[in-house]
């Protein structure tokens, strides 16, 4: 009994030990095919892991890039959209049975400045009480609570000081919100295109790597053949090395430096331009006369770029000259008038300013400079010029009312008579 049990155990061990040799006994052709299949499956597994890592990396790059670049702008755009929806909603009107003139009667997307102005008129009619030419805080409280009012009211021009919103202020705000949303949409679309171009480029590189790994594992390409191919690639790199360098610099410029987005107003080589379109290799700019200019990103990476959109509230300097005979009291009164004017326009100017007496020239004029700070950057160049023009016009009125003038020095003129004629 013991001998039989031991024999069965030994037979089991022998059978288990000979199990791998079953493959050895197969025909060489079958074993070779199985070997190729195993290597192919292993290469596919490695390729799948590499492709998965590439996909996860691209998703991470895209999400990080969008979050760091557009998060604040998206939040601001969403808040503007919320304000528009609330102001156009008929549900909070005092008279529920009254027909609404707002935009919420039929959801409609604003696609042009003209539609934005029409929407502003409809919103004003929906919010303002019948017969009123202004929207007051009482009207807004039907749509927002006290905390939201503190955020909504300063968005409208002149509303923070007076507590009233004019039709023009409502129109300007709706148009501004539409333009900012349009610019954000273009920026997101161009960024999506850039990310897709980068994704395609990385995909080509990964496919080449997977093919090389597969050929090596399958034994089709040996290290000697790979070495020969490498020498050929060196020749190709020598020929196209400059192009590869430009592509690499462009990628660094777009994804790491990223000094601007679509719609930003910038200064490059002393010229103001607006970013129209961004690609991996080139960026399209609009000049002041709407002329399109194409810049290689590899060239832009070497230039100093000023970005108005990303700048904080910017300063403005206005130079002027007055007569040296102007009294100190008149200069002091002029400073007081300028201070009162700036404080009366808190939505245009910060109260902190300086009036500098720079120098006295030719003992007949005093060069002065007024330095003020806007409540915005110079992204909206039209609004900036309007504010500056109003300030210069106000200075002119002050000079006229205070009789502050400037006179040229008297010029000496000599007359001589030669042969009865005057020279």
From TrEMBL:
Domain annotation Mechanosensitive ion channel MscS: ranges: 245-308
GO biological process, one term: detection of mechanical stimulus
Main location: membrane
Gene3D superfamilies named among the record's database cross-references: 2.30.30.60
Mode of membrane association: Multi-pass membrane protein
InterPro entries assigned to the protein according to its UniProt record, in alphabetical order: LSM_dom_sf, MscS-like_plants/fungi, MscS_beta-dom_sf, MscS_channel_2nd
Transmembrane segments: 201-221, 227-248
Subcellular location, record wording: Membrane
Gene Ontology CC annotations of this record: plasma membrane
Species of origin: Eragrostis curvula
Entry similarity comment: Belongs to the MscS (TC 1.A.23) family.
Organism domain of life: Eukaryota
One Pfam family recorded for the sequence: MS_channel_2nd
GO molecular function: mechanosensitive monoatomic ion channel activity
Alphabetical keyword list: Membrane, Transmembrane, Transmembrane helix, Transport
Protein name as catalogued: Mechanosensitive ion channel MscS domain-containing protein
């Amino acid at each position: 009994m013991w001998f039989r049990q031991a024999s069965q155990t030994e037979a089991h061990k022998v059978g288990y030990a000979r199990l791998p040799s079953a493959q050895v006994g197969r025909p060489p052709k079958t074993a070779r095919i199985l070997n190729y299949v195993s290597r192919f499956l292993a290469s596919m597994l490695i390729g799948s892991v590499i492709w998965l890592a590439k996909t996860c990396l691209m998703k991470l790059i895209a999400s990080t890039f969008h979050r760091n670049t557009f998060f604040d702008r998206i939040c601001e755009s969403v808040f503007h959209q919320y304000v528009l929806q609330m102001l156009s909603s008929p549900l909070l009107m005092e008279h529920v049975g009254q027909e609404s003139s707002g935009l919420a009667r039929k959801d409609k997307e604003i696609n042009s400045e003209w539609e934005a102005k029409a929407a502003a008129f409809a919103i004003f009619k929906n919010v303002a009480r019948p017969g009123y030419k202004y929207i007051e805080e009482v009207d807004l409280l039907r749509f927002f609570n006290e905390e939201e009012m503190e955020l909504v009211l300063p968005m409208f021009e002149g509303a923070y000081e007076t507590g009233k919103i004019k039709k023009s202020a409502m129109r300007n705000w709706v148009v501004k919100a539409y333009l900012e949303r349009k610019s954000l949409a273009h920026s997101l679309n161009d960024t999506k295109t850039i990310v897709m171009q980068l994704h395609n480029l990385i995909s080509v590189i990964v496919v080449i790597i997977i093919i090389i790994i597969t050929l090596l594992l399958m034994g089709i390409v040996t290290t000697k053949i790979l070495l020969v191919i490498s020498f050929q690639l060196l020749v190709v790199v020598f020929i196209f090395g400059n192009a590869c360098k430009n592509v690499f610099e462009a990628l660094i410029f777009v994804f790491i430096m990223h000094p601007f987005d679509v719609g930003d107003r910038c200064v490059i080589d002393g010229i103001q331009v607006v970013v129209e379109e961004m690609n991996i290799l080139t960026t399209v700019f609009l000049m002041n006369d709407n002329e399109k200019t194409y810049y290689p990103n590899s060239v832009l990476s070497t230039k100093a770029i000023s970005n108005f959109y990303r700048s904080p509230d910017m300063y403005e300097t206005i130079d002027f000259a007055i007569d040296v005979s102007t009294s100190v009291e008149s200069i002091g009164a002029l400073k007081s008038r300028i201070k009162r004017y700036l404080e009366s326009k808190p939505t245009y100017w910060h109260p902190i300013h300086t009036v500098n007496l720079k120098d006295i020239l030719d003992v007949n004029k005093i060069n002065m400079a007024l330095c003020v700070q806007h409540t915005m950057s110079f992204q909206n160049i039209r609004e900036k010029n309007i504010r500056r023009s109003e300030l210069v016009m106000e200075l002119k009125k002050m000079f006229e009312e205070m009789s502050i003038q400037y006179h040229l020095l008297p010029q000496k003129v000599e007359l001589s008579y030669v042969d009865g004629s005057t020279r």
